[in-house]
Amino acid sequence: MLYPLIRKFFFSLDAETAHGIGMMGVDRVACLMAKPVTPCPVDVMGLKFPNPVGLAAGLDKNGDHIDGLAKLGFGFLEIGTITPRPQDGNPKPRLFRIPEAQGIINRMGFNNAGVDKLLENVRAAEFPKNGGILGINIGKNATTPIEKAADDYLICLDKVYNDASYVTVNISSPNTKNLRELQKDEALDDLLSQLKAKQLQLADQHSKYVPMALKIAPDLDDEQITAIADALRRHRFDAVIATNTTLSRDGVEGLPNAAEAGGLSGAPVFRKSTDVLKKLSTALAGELPIIGVGGIMGGEDAAEKIKAGASLVQFYSGFIYRGPDLVSEVAETLAIMLRQKK
């Protein structure tokens, strides 16, 4: 009952201001807000997850709040998106709620303190030291030309490799100019080839293999989904995250803030992202796991992602609207569902 009252206060503030205050609050009172989480161990990407419920990238860009978030019962956390150099992101305001549809539009633009600062925070946190699964999401700086994008991803992969449980390659944010061009055939093939070679080199160097996932957009047609699936298999990627935010405004037309530029997340993207997940699962035929994200607002939404082919789920906007209760609800729903499947 506590979170609806807290949310009412936060929703009276500017969205980005509320986010900053809220994250500081998580650090201080996470233990009071957390509910017991049903254990539901799963093995994915060669990693043992205590439960399949993850926090999506974007909520904790710099890894400032790892230990507070971990206390809420997530089976894994993903931090970032991080870039080689610090950058301010896009001008404010750049984060907008659409409460009538349980949606959020953001055009943050990879605002972050840079990869070195993130690594300071990761190394200071207890969660990864205690075996917690921590994904690090990497991107490119806005000032880096798109034809040089691979350089930024390789720099970040090299730096975070030894501190990450897995690394996510984000080529699907709509808020960095031309970034989604990297999802196209030749550009994708070239990027994945370079990243795979670097991953194998780093595995030798550090004597451990750190899995890599690719995060894709929901705004893909069937042909693009098949091409991405083929590329992921060809370059032996370890997982794919489906999906990022959408440029579509289906389901929010005419609502306040709906005309703002940026990526739409939350309940309005659920169907679109789940359709992409289902098609991707068919195209991949079980050859690599999928992490389902996009519009999970309750346990049944998460269950539908698993039925569509996901092995793990993540949420961000649902956490903003539902609070920590969503973690325990999704974990319990999936534990029951997966137990019945055995």
What topology emerges from the helices and strands here?
Elements: H1 2-10, H2 15-33, E1 42-44, E2 47-49, E3 53-55, H3 66-70, E4 76-82, E5 95-98, E6 103-106, H4 115-124, H5 126-129, E7 133-138, H6 149-160, E8 166-170, H7 185-206, E9 212-216, H8 222-234, E10 239-242, E11 263-266, H9 270-284, E12 290-293, H10 299-308, E13 312-315, H11 317-322, H12 325-341
Parallel strand pairs: 3-4, 3-13, 4-7, 7-8, 8-9, 9-10, 10-12, 12-13
Antiparallel strand pairs: 1-2, 5-6, 6-11
> Uncertain segments of ≥5 residues (pLDDT<50)?
none
> Which CATH top level class fits?
Alpha Beta
Placed side by side, the strands forming the largest sheet appear as 3-4-7-8-9-10-12-13
- Radius of gyration over C-alpha positions, nearest whole angstrom: 18 Å
Which fold name corresponds to the CATH topology?
TIM Barrel
- How many distinct folded domains? 1
Q: Mind telling me which CATH architecture this is?
A: Alpha-Beta Barrel
End-to-end Cα distance, whole Å, is 34 Å
Shape: globular
The biggest sheet, with number of strands, parallel, antiparallel or mixed sense and barrel status, is: 8 strands, parallel, barrel
CATH homologous superfamily (4th level) name: Aldolase class I
Beta-strand portion reads 15-25%
Number of E-state strands: 13
H and E order: HHEEEHEEEHHEHEHEHEEHEHEHH
User: Average pLDDT value?
Assistant: 97
By DSSP (H or I, 4+ residues per run), the number of helices equals 12
